[in-house]
Amino acid sequence: MIEKLEKHEELVLSQEVRRKLLAISPATMDRLLQKEKPKLTPISRSYTKPGTLLKHQILVHTFADWDEKRPGFCEIDLVAHDGGNPGGVSHKLLM
Predict the structure, then answer these.
(1) pLDDT per position as a tens digit, 38-69
(2) I need a labelling partner for 76 at 20 to 30 A (CA). Which of 16, 22, 85, 93 fits?
(3) What is the three-class DSSP state of 94?
C-alpha cells in the first residue's frame, strides 16, 4: 500500500520512516495505534437525516405497488461515498 500511495503522491515518507514501516509487523502496528484509532473512527456514517418537509407530499410505494415499466418510474438510494469525510477534502499523509 505504501508504494501505491507514494506513486499517486498521497504519501511522502523519509527513507528512515519508509524503512521502519516496511519492517514493522501488522500486530505491532495495531498495538502502537491502539489509542489513535478511536479518534479516527467516525461516530456515525450516516449523513442523510429524515426530514418532514416533504414527507407527506411524496407518495411512497411498497415493492408490491411498483410498476418499473411505467414511464416516470424512479428508484433512488442515498449513499455517501465520501469515506467518512463529508467535507470532501482529500488529506495527503506526510511523514
Answers:
(1) 887 766 666 666 666 766 777 766 666 666 77
(2) 85
(3) strand
